[in-house]
Amino acid sequence: MELIEHLSEKGQYDYKLVQRALHDKDQKAYAELMQRYREPIYFMLLKMVNDKDDADDLTIEAFGKAFKRLAQYTPQYAFSTWLFKIASNNCIDHIRRKRIRAVSIDHGFSNEDGETIEISIKDVMLDPAEAMQKEERIRKMREIVDKLKPRYRRLVEMRYFDEMAYEEIAEELQLPLGTVKAQLFRAREFLFQMMQNTKDIY
Questions:
Q1: Which of 29, 46, 80, 136 is placed for a possible disulfide with 55 were both Cys, Cβ 3.0 to 4.6 Å?
Q2: Whole-angstrom distance, CA of residue 102 vs CA of residue 108
Q3: What b/e readout covers 58-79, taking b as 16+ CB neighbours within 10 angstroms?
Q4: More confident: 194 or 37
Q5: Which of 124, 140, 155 delimits the end of a domain?
Q6: Any idea what DSSP says for residue 8?
Q7: DSSP label of 120
């Protein structure tokens, strides 16, 4: 048993929830951890990205990554500290990806190795090999999505393939906004589980 006396009462309680989730496969422990931190994580991410839909998605991703790595958590720090670090790092990666997609074609950008990558108009079009790779990734992703139940598959297609906002999906399907978000959360959980066996799509 690891020493947790240095943690606050709240931190010690979180640690016990983590142990129940890990060793007892207690779904209520997972749910309680999410309930305790979903709102503060969401508002932290909202400040970082200033977009409610992105903050919603990033919140779900943060918990998905944290729960996947739960065995790596040690009580050297409070669970909340560890979770917020995962969420903020994931958000920073998201912001970097968006910046790269939106980079000016006139200036290019530098990659992590310090190499400057120039972008010209002709570079907007993928070369044949890149186009084939992209099509293959999309095909494999669609194969996974097609395995979802119809109601989840439709939501994923609207959100991620058609790039519709949550509000647009709710209006289109005549569903409450909360229901759309909850069902998309479940759909992403199912996708995450299925993608563990299809890691080569990336």
A1: 46
A2: 10
A3: bbbbbbbbbbeebeebebeebb
A4: 37
A5: 124
A6: -
A7: -
pLDDT at 120: 39
Burial letters for 164-190: b for 16+ Cβ neighbours within 10 Å, e otherwise? bebeebbeeeebeeeebbebbbebbeb
Cβ burial, residue 14 (10 Å; 0-12/13-18/19+)? buried
Tell me what the mean pLDDT of segment 142-170 comes to. Answer: 82
CATH number of the domain within which 46 lies: 1.10.1740.10
Work out the burial of residue 52: count CB atoms within 10 Å of its CB; fewer than 13 is exposed, 13-18 middle, 19 or more buried.
Answer: middle
Please give the mean pLDDT across all residues of the chain.
Answer: 78
Strand partners, 109: 117
pLDDT at 114 over 70: no
pTM (two decimals): 0.56
Question: Whole domain around residue 86: which residue ranges?
Answer: 1-124
The tens digit of pLDDT for each residue in 5-47 reads 888 999 999 999 999 988 888 888 888 998 899 899 999 999 9
In the DSSP assignment, the letter for residue 158 is: I
Element (H, E) at 187: helix 177-195
Same domain, 120 and 25: yes
